[in-house]
Specification:
The protein is built from nine helices and nine strands. The chain is α+β, with helices and mostly antiparallel strands. Strand 6 and strand 7 form a beta hairpin. Helix 5 packs antiparallel against helix 6. The longest helix has 13 residues.
């Protein structure tokens, strides 16, 4: 199979794993396909994002990194700084796409950028909703869960003072749900996280 026939068959998969090719290509998938993938990489048609995960090179600029993050390392959902920036809760541009996962903490440097995944307990893996981008779904933390995840994973360096909240430049005008903040904090069963959320509620005048 030549590259152009291959590309036509997988046109709906801008990035794909070798196991997916077996399903999409059917009888056209054979041991020689792995050799073809290597040759197409050498010719610049494909980009390897991690072992067994490839990208069509000409579609590189069309990939949404938040969508791709869930494919790169799963189960995971977008949270922390990336989600907080997305919602306008923090003003800074984020250059690493941040997610949480139930697997071990991991970082990836790929041709699409940097990706960071931080581990949380399985009981706290939730508080996200499914989003769609170009027909592909991905998971994005609700604003309240993104903030709680951030406080939990940074609880050793955040003291809950007004000065520190000011230094993070959190958007005081963002309409958080106080009940959701407390509900998500409770799931972690961590006193420091609950304390930080209560301090944040007071600081942002949600009470």
């Amino acid at each position: 199979m030549d590259y152009f026939k291959f590309r036509d068959k997988i046109k709906d998969l801008p990035y794909f794993e070798t196991r997916e090719l077996k399903i999409v290509l059917g009888d056209d998938f054979n041991p020689a396909m792995l050799v073809n993938l290597k040759n197409w990489m050498n010719k610049g048609h494909l980009v390897m994002l991690r072992r067994g995960l490839y990208l069509l090179a000409d579609l590189k600029n069309e990939v949404d990194v938040m969508v791709f993050a869930g494919k790169l390392y799963s189960p995971s959902y977008i949270s922390l700084e990336t989600a907080l920036s997305f919602y306008g809760i923090i003003p800074e541009a984020v250059f690493t796409t941040t997610s949480v996962t139930t697997r071990k903490t991991k970082k990836f440097q790929t041709p699409l950028g940097y990706f960071s995944y931080q581990k949380i307990k399985k009981e706290a893996f939730g508080g996200f909703e499914a989003k769609m981008q170009n027909g592909i779904s991905y998971k994005l933390a609700l604003p309240e869960k993104a903030l709680v995840d951030f406080f939990y994973l940074n609880r050793n360096i955040i003291d809950g003072s007004q000065e520190q909240f000011e230094s993070y430049r959190f958007n005081k005008d963002f309409k958080f749900s106080k009940s959701k903040l407390r509900k998500f904090a409770k799931i972690f069963q961590n006193k420091k996280t609950s304390f930080l959320i209560n301090q944040f509620i007071k600081w942002s005048h949600l009470d």
